Amino acid sequence: MNGISDLEPLNQCQNLSELYLRKNNIASLNELFYLKNLPRLRVLWLSENPCCGSDPHRYRMTVLRNLPSLQKLDNQAVTEEELSQALVDGEEITAPPARRNVENGCLESTESSAAESTTETESELLNFSLEETNKIREELGMKPVPRDKFSSFSPRDTDCNRKKRNNVLNAILLLMKELDTEGLEIVQQTVGRRLQVLRKKELQEE
Description:
The protein is α/β, with parallel strands linked by helices and 206 residues long. It is 48% helix and 7% strand. It contains seven helices and six strands. Strand 3 and strand 4 (76-77) form a beta hairpin.
């Protein structure tokens, strides 16, 4: 429910045990490639994403073939019979999504997405970025950024960079749910130091 479309930021999260991605924008089951090396992943909720397709059996079998350590998928317990059947009915995923541009980690635009991006105005892009930023700040317990201040320090990104940034931010929010009090305090201290550095840089540039 965070607009996530790319699971690559999660592929190094070795301690991740539960992942809730229901109602996002994950278009391809090939994104599961990035979860295959997470040894502790036991619970995955992926339903109501475009990647689920129109065949629920094929979808479930493909997920279980590639993530056989799951104990629960989409809030439904995984059985030994399903794991065996997945070896027959599921599709093995051996590579990340084919449309990925390896050099910069961004998704290459299709004709339709390129056409859509050309119809977006700068104002619409700014509103989207501001909304996403304030949504994340709200979940972190931070004050929203005023529109005038946002436009002054957040220049318009390319569509690719904007999507990549939002995916990283959403991944961070997901992972924060795994942290205890001590871990969250470390994150808070690190964020505080980083903000001080950025604010000093902004003042110097002014």
